């Protein structure tokens, strides 16, 4: 018998599809993927807009001595938009920091529909004299801020003055000079720095002192030398101090009540 050759089987995978068919297959697969992503995105957008995620409460913590919690909420909440997912925390921070006396706010989300706000208030330590006469306040960090001056009218705050942006420097100088003049039982009511960097102080007893220009260390040293010797002049004439000029190289000039200006030499070893 004659053997017959085996008939080859048909293998569809071995058949090369035309380029147009392959392109259609790839395009269809991509459309399926894109469609799935779009469906997932739509589902997610639907989910995050559900009422369950609307902000239901705002818990205010931290310093609230200058404002009540209700006042803070009344000022800030109308500026908030969105829910737990869509609320812009940066804008929320700005809204709370725009409330008078609020220096810094940290706004956090609390699952699933609450906000937690941690506040830090300004602590006013001085008034800041403005050119237009609309005085502002200086906080403990040397920052100028706006608030109702009537809130601090009973706190006997000193007045500071200087070029724009110099509030921190003027406050630092004030803090260094206060303990120096306490030895004379004189308290600084106003401290000013001119545009050229010259310092002028006014005191609660009406006296005024020109300390001149220089670094803070130089000004403090100059003031300490003055305090250490001026008591002898005051005791000698038994008159209160009205004015002193510490800008002299070899000493300082003083004017006592009822007595014209007198130049006092700096003792040897204490000169600039």
Sum up the structure in keywords:
272 residues, alpha/beta, 10-stranded mixed beta sheet, 3-stranded mixed beta sheet, 5 helices, 31% helix, 25% strand, elongated
Q: What percentage of residues falls in helices of 4 or more residues?
A: 25-40%
pLDDT averaged over residues? 87
Q: Number of DSSP strands?
A: 13
Estimated radius of gyration: 37 Å
Question: How do the strands of the widest beta sheet line up side by side?
Answer: 6-5-4-7-8-9-10-11-12-13
Structural class: alpha/beta
Largest sheet: 10 strands, mixed
Number of helices, where a helix is a run of at least 4 consecutive DSSP H or I residues:
5
What are the segments in which pLDDT stays under 50 over at least 5 consecutive residues?
none
Helix and strand element order: HEHHEEEEEEHEEEHEEE
Q: Per DSSP, what share of the residues sits in E-state strands of 2 or more residues?
A: 25-35%
Global outline:
elongated
Our measurement of the CA-to-CA distance between the termini, rounded to an integer number of angstroms, reads 132 Å
């Amino acid at each position: 018998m004659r053997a017959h050759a085996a008939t080859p089987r048909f293998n569809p995978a071995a058949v090369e599809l035309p380029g147009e068919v392959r392109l259609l297959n790839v395009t269809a697969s991509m459309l399926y993927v894109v469609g799935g992503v779009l469906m997932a995105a739509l589902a997610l957008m639907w989910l995050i807009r559900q009422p369950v995620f609307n902000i239901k409460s705002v818990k205010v913590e931290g310093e609230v001595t200058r404002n009540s919690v209700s006042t803070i909420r009344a000022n800030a909440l109308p500026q908030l938009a969105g829910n737990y997912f869509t609320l812009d925390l940066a804008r929320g921070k700005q809204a709370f920091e725009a409330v008078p006396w609020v220096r810094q706010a940290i706004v956090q989300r609390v699952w699933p529909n609450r906000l937690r706000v941690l506040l830090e208030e300004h602590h006013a330590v001085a008034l800041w004299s403005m050119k237009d006469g609309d005085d502002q306040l200086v906080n403990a960090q040397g920052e100028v801020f706006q608030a109702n001056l009537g809130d601090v009218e009973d706190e006997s705050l000193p007045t500071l003055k200087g070029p724009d942006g110099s509030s921190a420097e003027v406050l630092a100088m004030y803090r260094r000079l206060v303990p120096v003049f306490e030895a004379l039982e004189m308290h600084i009511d106003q401290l000013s720095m001119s545009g050229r960097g010259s310092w002028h102080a006014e005191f609660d007893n009406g006296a005024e002192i020109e300390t001149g220009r220089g670094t803070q260390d130089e000004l403090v040293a100059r003031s300490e030398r003055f305090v250490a010797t001026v008591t002898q002049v005051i005791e000698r004439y038994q008159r209160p101090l009205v004015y002193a000029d510490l800008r002299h190289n070899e000493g300082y000039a003083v004017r006592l009540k009822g007595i014209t200006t007198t130049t006092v030499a700096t003792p040897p070893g204490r000169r600039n």
